[in-house]
Amino acid sequence: MPAPPCFLATTHDSKAKPSPIRRATFTAKWIVPSAGLILMPKCPMCLAAYIAFATGLGVSFETADWLRSTLIWSCIASLTLFTALTLRRLIRRRMVS
After folding, report:
1. How large is the average pLDDT for residues 63-79?
2. CA 21, CA 63: separation in Å to the nearest integer?
3. How much is the mean pLDDT over the chain?
4. Mutual angle of helices 61-96 and 44-55, in 10-degree steps
5. CA–CA separation, 67 vs 43, rounded Å?
6. Residue 97 DSSP symbol
7. Which of 9, 45, 53, 57 is most buried (CB neighbours < 10 A)?
8. Dihedral angle at the C-alpha atoms of 96, 11, 85, 22, nearest 10 degrees?
9. What phi and psi, each to the nearest 5 degrees, are found at residue 90?
10. pLDDT, position 17
11. Helix, strand, coil in percent for the chain, rounding step 5
12. Average pLDDT of the residues in 27-41
């Protein structure tokens, strides 16, 4: 049986369990953007109030609206990226097996 191409070859044992730090990192990168989407206030004024309460700095409605939209799209983009990377890893694992 020929060896798999270099992009499919793995340098570590695929049966070995990942370290606790690697598992925690994998879990955190899914939980943080998900929690961000869940806990994001629905109105920009609430976000402005949270920022003012936490930091003592007031922000305008427009700034709070821009920040809220940016945070929502950042969370969606990171979840999409993590999904694509996980699917790619699973497909590679199936091709090698």
Report:
1. 95
2. 37
3. 86
4. 100
5. 11
6. -
7. 45
8. 130
9. -65, -40
10. 81
11. 70, 0, 30
12. 92
